[in-house]
Design goal:
Blueprint lengths: L1 H6 L8 E5 L2 E8 L5 E2 L9 H13 L12 H29 L9 H26 L2 H4 L1 H21 L7 H30 L5 H30 L3 H25 L7 H14 L5 H7 L11 E4 L3 H4 L3 H10 L4 E6 L4 E6 L5 H18 L10 H19 L25
Parallel strand pairs: 4-6
Antiparallel strand pairs: 1-2, 2-3, 5-6
Length: about 425
């Protein structure tokens, strides 16, 4: 038995091994005729696997799952579900708008319908410009919050279009307001989609991730059109059924959107995540993981007691006299000034000309530490914030990096005002 085992030929080593993401390695050995063949058990994929590979290559980024962030798949699944619901409710709204402008009505005026449509589009275009001017810089910093806001506003706009025919005297006004909301949705949704795509692309493949996202959206919209072809004739002229279907699909749309943005785990620090990390560090002595902080991050603004922090503030918010400027200089750091008004609940942070992301992160942490001292946070320090920050910040920064946060590229929404000042004169 032992002799037979000694005479058995050793297994041949593969000449080359083929690797592909999400598939087991496939070794190849030269056969008697010199052709490369896979050994038994490593045969070519069957029809089912080939179909899966085809669908993966068409609708998912190349190299999936290694080429995208770990939260890509759950986010896309929920995003697909919400897009399907939105597509059907959009068809219901389109039907209502067409009925409202007179499609099918012999007494309707083509000129009146055209005027209504022009007013609707014109209002939306102006709204798009104003919204991008007022809120464009915030869309990167709080992409998840604005993404959810955009979808809520989209549902409001669809509801307005569905009920508009019931109010013929206000039809044009309702339609223009709805068009304004939808254009805001377009700006906020498109910008936040780009921010999320940048987060998901892990191999400098943002264009591929964006293109495959477009393919997924097109497929979903096609499915939504097919569903609309079935559902719209069934609800035509039946208002109760129309509103019931809208309500059910809107509830599904909002829930799927909430789950989609909640599934995203971003490693960059914006103000809500930095605030959570700082409070956690003050309580427990270590920074939370990005997954923990993202799970606790508020998705709608306005909750909780927070100071109004202006990062990159102009001089007028910092000081109006030499004494106030010196106070702001003493309260801040080498490259930033701080003016804190506890009665107004405001903190103005002036950044030095040329200050980089590291200064922004430290200055914003200083402002949030002032906020923490106003709140009943267990373990929060109460001496002068500048002194506390000086001893606390190095360990806090090290804890953030150890927890996996990208501290070199914070998204803190700094304004573009910068100041330049001489260092304080030393007493002789």
């Amino acid at each position: 038995m032992a002799a037979a085992a000694e005479l058995a030929p050793a297994p041949r080593r593969a000449l080359v091994t083929e690797h592909r993401p999400a598939r087991p390695p496939r070794p190849f050995l030269p056969g008697p005729d010199g052709r490369l063949r896979a050994p038994p058990g490593h045969a070519a994929a069957g029809p089912a696997a080939s179909l899966r590979d085809l669908l993966t290559s068409v609708f998912l980024p190349q190299g999936f799952p290694g080429s995208v962030s770990p939260d890509y798949l759950p986010y896309q699944c929920w995003d697909t579900l919400q897009a399907l619901a939105s597509s059907v409710t959009g068809a219901l709204a389109t039907q209502a708008v067409l009925r409202g402008v007179g499609v099918g009505d012999r007494d309707a005026s083509v000129a009146a319908a055209t005027t209504t449509w022009i007013l609707k589009d014109g209002t939306g275009m102006l709204g798009r410009i104003v919204f991008a001017w007022m809120k464009g810089s915030q869309l990167d910093c709080e992409a998840k919050q604005w993404r959810l806001f955009a979808d809520i506003l989209n549902d409001v706009a669809i509801f307005m279009e569905i009920v508009a025919p019931a109010f013929p005297a206000c039809f044009t006004l309702i339609l223009c307001t709805s068009g304004l909301f939808k254009c805001i949705v377009g700006v906020a949704g498109g910008a936040t989609r780009a921010a999320l795509t940048q987060h998901q692309a892990r191999r400098d493949n943002m264009a591929d991730v964006s293109a495959k996202d477009g393919s997924q959206e097109t497929l979903v919209n096609l499915a939504g059109l097919l569903m609309s072809l079935i559902l719209v004739p069934l609800v035509t002229g039946r208002l109760l059924l129309t509103y019931t279907l809208w309500g059910a699909l809107t509830a599904l749309h909002l829930y799927a959107n909430y789950r989609a943005v909640r599934a995203v785990v971003m490693e960059t620090l914006n103000r809500p995540r930095l605030r959570l990390a700082l409070h956690h560090f003050l309580r427990h002595g270590h920074a939370p993981s990005p997954a923990y902080a993202n799970a606790c991050e508020p998705l709608l603004p306005g909750f909780g007691h927070h100071l109004r922090v202006t990062l990159g503030a102009p001089l007028r918010l910092l000081a109006s006299s030499e004494a106030e400027f010196l106070d702001a200089q003493r309260a801040g750091g080498p490259d930033y000034l701080i003016a804190f008004d506890p009665r107004a609940g405001t903190v103005a942070v002036g950044l030095r000309w040329g200050a980089g992301p590291g200064v922004e992160l430290r200055a914003c942490t200083h402002a949030l530490l002032l906020e923490a001292q106003q709140l009943p946070v267990p373990g929060a320090p109460h001496p002068e914030a500048a002194h506390v920050l000086h001893s606390l910040y190095p360990s806090f920064l090290a804890a953030l990096e150890a927890a996996g946060w990208a501290t070199q590229r914070p998204l803190l929404g700094a304004e573009d005002w910068r100041l330049d000042w001489a260092p304080p004169e030393k007493d002789l």
